[in-house]
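Let's practice the habit of predicting before peeking. Look at the sequence and jot down your guess about where helices and strands might fall. Then scroll down.
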Amino acid sequence: MIEASKMLDGNLLKVLADAKKVGAVDDSGAMLITDFLKNIEGEIKRKRDQATEIIGEIRALSKLSQVWGGVLRSHTRNEIAAQENRVQAEERRETKIEIKKEVKIKKKGKSKTKKK
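Done guessing? Here is the structure:
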């Protein structure tokens, strides 16, 4: 019982000792209570370890999410820039075609005026 009582909280140990003094609990009952409390303490430790592990996983996922968020933002910016470049290139092509048509029309117009 001494080894088991080392694991118990001071207040619980006092309550257990008082219960033994008044005869509410004998040594075997005290041992059962101590074992029960040790099991509870062990379960609490396991749950705490699980919570710590889960918190670590959440932090890792959060970092991964930040990285992917950055990648997606960068990719989106690149896609927007590429789309803008495509639109500008198309506009330049259309402008060149229009300029060529105007030049041809002017050339035809000048050549006709020269012949007259």
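How did you do? The radius of gyration is 42 Å.
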